[in-house]
Amino acid sequence: MDRNKARKRAEELVSKMTVEEAASQLRFDAPAIERLGVPEYNWWNEALHGVARAGTATSFPQSIALGATFDQELLGKIGETIATEGRAKYNEISANMGDRDIYKGLTFWSPNVNVFRDPRWGRGQETYGEDPYLISRLAIPFIKGIQGEGEYMKAAACAKHFVVHSGPEAKRHEFDVEPSKKDLRETYLPAFEACVKEAGVESVMGAYNRVNGEPCCGHSFIKDIIRDEWGFEGHFVSDCWAIRDFHEHHKVTKNSEESAALALKKGCDLNCGCTYVHLMKAYNKGLVTEAQIRESAVRLFTTRFLLGLFDKTEYDGLTYLDVETEENIALAKRASDEAVVMLKNNGILPLDAGKTKVISVIGPNADARRPLMGNYYGTSSEYITAIEGIRKAAGSNVRILYSEGCDLSNTKPDPLSRDYNTIAEAKAVMSRSDLVILCIGLNETLEGEEGDQGNQYASGDKNDLSFPKPQLKLIEAVKNSGKPFITVVMTGSAMDLTPFSEEASAILQAWYPGARGGLSIGDIIFGKVNPSGKLPVTICRSVDDLPDFEDYSMKNRTYKYTEHEPLYPFGYGLTYGKVTIGNIAVSDSSASARENGFDITVSVKNEGAIKTGEVVQIYAKALEDKNEVRNFKLVGFKRVELEKGQSEDVILHIDPDSLKVFDDEGNKVTPEGKIKIYAGFGQPDERTKELYKTSALEVTI
Of 634, 632, 633, 628, which Cα lies nearest the Cα of 616? Predict the structure, then answer.
């Protein structure tokens, strides 16, 4: 439905409401208005990597793992699948059975497009990584997939959390961030701008913190930047109970009425929380006007009309038979296959099931469901853990021994035992095996959102990047066993890998790979799938290489600004194949190219023995402009898949905006002087060159 038509219908409906009725619709749990035929509607639903918290749904890898795919087409298909399943569940549960409870609507508060600027942030797993360009290029197809291209919007996406938010979780309700104008425009705003201007996202969610003294859910940015500068026409929603923070923690208002009034006047249409129950008090005190209340109600009903919630739509035929279908499960498997990043391989992988007799699989994440999921997850009808996937891939001729080895984080999980009471068993198991597969990491109980509604342990940020002490003990036992070992790391963030990076024969970063993610782990280990994921974050050598967690300056953060050599760089990831780049050509190398954009043609060839997926990455650096990032920046990427011996010319369009630089006032300008363009399968940095044993190709314009 055309937005103008939807808005006119919304204006007509809201005009029939009393002020009190209109105000009631600005809550996330909007009540019914029976006299007008308006059913109740709960706006709160989640879908970061599958429909979440609403029963059965296809379980995709956590967002950070989707970032590792560098696959825009895949993200579009995942978004489309989420919308299909969400609409099917809405039809069956809400429309047919009248259950309009939380997590059952069609407004998904996803994706999270914050920048993963510090690996200690617990919610970094919800993002697509540390680079605004990568984030935006993946968020756009995800949002378009969710919202669809039909007569009606299939479901509504939401870009969150606006803005400058990536920890600390413990202080988010009171924290005031003071970013430089350059960092704000160069790093923190671009993904949101892309979501609004390129993806047409229907909603934007505010963050908990303040920015330059103003709380994000009552910030002048809502009108000045999102609406006036970017032309946003959708609705703005607060994070949950964030408006209550105005008076309880930020102390910018005195009470609930003042907080509700401030948020509404600044442009926050919808309150996740309870503060807008005080809107009528604010209205009666003259703190807000009837026009302000009605305008927000109109925006919200515009979304409901766009979704066809008062009409028959082309999606009404979707049922539970469209949830977790074979096709959807296969798409999730493709995602987890593409997400696993092989960081190291001394030749041990892939394993040959015909030659390997006994394998020991050990570690707290080897046979656990929790590390499959990450946070904000739905329910799967089947879970396949790492060891189950390894068993399936290995077949019946390989003997697999198992020991948990240690608890995830407790030194003494059994109160009657001594500390580390299962390490002896792990040692015994390893002594009887030819090689070891060590499955370690975290889960959402150890990194996640502070006070997460779906997390009984209320986890948050990590104090450092070390694995929990019991796992470090187990790692030492594995190294001392003398057996070759493969390490599978299941986390939502970059950890300190130095305790085993030298000694391990191979390292797989598997993230939180989804409910059936163990299949991908097993298939990659035994060569049924060729790994092709790339790091969407930097894995540093030490937490000492990082600035203070509360410092939001981008100095020495992420690959673009780091002053330290990483252990494993952003954009890096090995395969079992051998794809090479033979040539790089620019369609226009004149001075006008940086103003108008240009195409880059990269010639690639699979010189290996097997079908191989790779990610062609284009980086740029303005060589003579003081405003350029310290190192270089990603300006284009494309995933390719080549059969043995196949060659292909990969064409990537470089948008002129991606080449621009930001001055100290936050102005985006065309860079001065020459620009160097790099093409490769990772960054053009020295560490990537060392790991790949090859250099990126270069051209200067």
Answer: 634
pLDDT reported for residue 163? 96
What domain range is 241 assigned to?
3-318
Both 303 and 339 in one domain: the answer is no
- Answer whether residue 563 is part of any domain: no
- Do 530 and 447 belong to one domain? yes
| Rounded Cα gap, residues 2 and 254, in angstroms | 42
pLDDT digits (tens, 9 = 90+) for 190-228: 999 999 999 999 999 999 999 999 999 999 999 999 999
DSSP H stretches of helix in 340-468: 370-373, 386-394, 423-431
- How confident is residue 588, by pLDDT bands cut at 50, 70 and 90? confident
Percent of residues, the chain, with pLDDT higher than 90: 95
Q: How many CB atoms lie within 10 A of CB 526?
A: 21
Q: Residue 23: phi, psi to the nearest 5?
A: -65, -35
Instruction: Answer yes or no: do 353 and 257 share one domain.
Output: no
**429 and 360 in contact (C-beta within 8 Å)?**
yes
Q: How many CB atoms lie within 10 A of CB 301?
A: 27
Indicate whether 52 and 181 sit together in one domain: yes
Tokens for 451? 């006070």
284: part of which helix (H) or strand (E)?
Answer: helix 279-284
What's phi and psi for 606, nearest 5 deg? -90, 105
Task: Return the exposure string of 467-501: e unless at least 16 CB atoms fall within 10 Å of the residue's CB, then b.
Answer: bbebbbbbbebbbebebebbbbbbbbbbbbbebbb
How far is residue 177's CA from residue 215's CA, in Å, rounded to a whole number?
Answer: 10
Are 340 and 259 members of one domain? no
Which CATH number characterizes residue 642's domain? 2.60.40.10
